Amino acid sequence: MGRRVLSLSSSSSIRFCFFAFLQYASFLVLVVNGKKNLIPSSSMPVNRDLYHSSGDLMEQIKALVHRHPDKLTMERIKSRNKGYQAEISVVTYCWGRKENDDRSKFRILLSFGQHGRELITSELAFRILSILSEEQFLPNMDPASLNSTLDKLIIKVVPMENLNGRKLVEAGDLCERRNGRGVDLNRNWSVDWGKKEKDYNPYEENPGTAPFSEPETQIMRKLALSFDPHVWINVHSGMEALFMPYDHKNTTPDGFSAHQMKFLLEEVNRHHCQERCMIGSGGGSVGYLAHGTATDFMYDIARVPMAFTFEIYGDEAASSQDCFKMFNPTDLTTFNRVLNDWSAAFFAIFKLGPQQLSEDHPKVSAPKSDKWVSIDENLDGYLMERSSRNGKKMEVLDFGMQEIRTYFRLFVLSSVLLLFMFCSRISKSKSSRPVLSAIPL
Questions:
Q1: Is 311 a catalytic residue?
Q2: Which of the chain's ends, N or C, has fewer CB atoms near its CB within 10 Å?
Q3: Which strand (E) or helix (H) includes residue 42?
Q4: Where are the transmembrane segments (predicted)?
Q5: Can you give the residue ranges of every domain in the chain?
Q6: CATH homologous superfamily for 54-384?
């Protein structure tokens, strides 16, 4: 009887420690690092007859810029955070390259390829740059009218924001949307960062350890604040939609700017999307709320008057396991239709945007002295802007709470590991004791 009691106690201790360890390990995989692939990758390979590799695409764009130095320039921006490095190429279109005339022109910032699996978006970036350079042309568009429109613009194009994530896709993980260390770049911005919905999936939406923890978002943030655009468009695929703020709540902004944005989207939908595209706020239209997105930051913090998210393609009939087909056209006819229709849509934006934001409603920028507030020089680019003292205090408080949550997770993990070691030691010491046979009384 004594041996039974001892054996039962030892077994219970081992089972308790083992299941506690497994449970917390699963929690860490799902909540903390989000690096476990929970969605099977598509088996359909990338169609190389339609899609460039990331390296080839960037070389093609580089050659295009080299052939048209009177219109295009290109710069590569690198950033590093905790051993992880990213590089983003930015192509600037400016007729005659009148760099000293930047502030007098209408400024547009476009980002493509924020999610690695959405290859079609970077192909659209290449097509738009080819039209801007006049190596390709839009059908039914008067060249003189087009040149008159473009002469008033400066357009910055990021063809492939998430190069590291794109390389993972090309290596075979066709469902990967995050960057090279498992963070969703469209959840890593500071507006409503870190909030998780009930259906949160770390493989899809891991927000990182803090706002702007990722080099890619640090680069994009600095680019946006220095360029100070009138229009921002973040280009994705997965459906056909024209979204305006907000993503993190089921509402659109109030006032004149919201009216301008809605009018512009309705025009694009009518003339270039054949009324197929969903219009409204991302949070109210797509079926779920998204927190920490680029577009909400551009509108709320960077004060971009017109901030949009465009979804340019989606195959609703595709299996949820077939990521490549779900997010990218797989036949030549559809591929060309998407590029042609959406190129025309973007050039409509180039024409209508300045008309909507007339001289009667100029862009109001925060003073530079108020725009940047350094929280800590050791945060590798984690800088935040607020135009009021109260805003600065709230930003610091939010960041402090995020740090506390991170350290709490580490504390819990350490505690569980110590508990496991302690239980194992107890079990071992108990099992090594001499066992006395039960003596009947």
A1: yes
A2: C
A3: none
A4: 406-423
A5: 54-384
A6: Zn peptidases (3.40.630.10)
